[in-house]
Amino acid sequence: MGADEHELTGGNTAGSVVRVGNTVRKPWTDNTPVVHSYLAALRSRHVDAPRLLSRDEDGRQIVEFVEGTIALSQRPLDIDALRRVGRMIRRIHDASESIPIPDPDGWKLPLPADNPNLMCHNDLAPWNLVTGDRWVFIDWDGAGPSTRLWDLAYAAQAFGVLNQGEPVESAASRLRAFVDGYGADTLLREALPAAIVKRTAAMFELLRTSNETGLQPWADMYTSGHGEFWHTASDYVAKNETAWERALSRPE
Q1: Cα separations (Å) of 139 from 126, 158, 176?
Q2: Model pTM?
Q3: Residue that finishes a domain, picked among 31, 64, 97
Q4: Do residues 159 and 225 share a domain?
Q5: For 176-215, what is each residue's pLDDT tens digit?
Q6: Closest CA to 159 of 181, 132, 190
Q7: Looking at the structure, do residues 15 and 127 belong to the same domain, yes or no?
Q8: Do both 105 and 50 map to the same domain?
Q9: Residue where one domain finishes, among candidates 33, 64, 95
Q10: Which of 15, 49, 86, 89 has the fewest CB atoms within 10 Å, measured from its CB?
Q11: Do 135 and 48 contact (CB within 8 A), yes or no?
């Protein structure tokens, strides 16, 4: 690492990520060109996303460093903030509707959606949201073909803090605010509780099976606390699915 490089910690899957001045340097992958095209298309559709600059002499991506505070340190966000995040994600999804997706069969994602029809971030969560003068989702390297429902289910669980130990009524209120901000229609509201259960269980299964097979980085994540977290989160969202249904079925 060069003298002017400062390692950025907190990520689990992107490899070495460093800050150099007002830029971030991270590994270039086979998917990077398509992800860069996707981000450029989003920016042209007025979605605020990190600017993609170039490739450095070491072959790494050069991406804008977005100043601010990671939303994870503020979790749980208040109701107004959750509505704002819901609106942000709706804007991303709507903008993505007119962006072509690559062939899903040739696109390797750890948690693929059924019948993908939309390019999505796939990790819209508090650890990837910078707040401050700008509110911007970062770390788009896992973007790929998915669906609104699958992408939203993950974000809803994460931003709603639907985790073991959380009072169900409070979690349900946060979930409602987030989905209200998104402006979900009746069909999406009805489908979301079951999708949250399925998506949370899928995350735990990915970690569990990766631990058995040695697939990295998921195997190490399983043993470093993520396995237990997603196991209890999976139980929690399934046990309280009726509460999520009630929260999202009340008249607006």
Answers
A1: 12, 16, 26
A2: 0.92
A3: 64
A4: yes
A5: 999 999 999 999 999 999 999 999 999 999 999 999 999 8
A6: 181
A7: no
A8: no
A9: 64
A10: 15
A11: yes
Q: Which residue has the tokens 């209200």?
A: 180
173, exposed or middle or buried, with CB in 10 Å at 0-12, 13-18, 19+? middle
Q: What letter does residue 70 receive in the DSSP assignment?
A: E
Please state the φ and ψ torsions of residue 4, each to the nearest 5 degrees.
-95, 10
Provide the β-strand partners of residue 24: 19, 63
Taking only the tens place, the pLDDT of each residue in 30-63 is 889 999 999 999 999 999 999 998 899 999 999 9
Strands 129-131 and 136-137: antiparallel
**211 and 188 part of one domain:** yes
Query: What domain range includes position 42?
Result: 6-64
List the structure tokens of 67: 């100043």
What is the DSSP pairing of strand 61-64 with strand 69-70? unpaired
- Distance, in Å, from the CA atom of 112 to the CA atom of 102, rounded to the nearest integer, reads 13
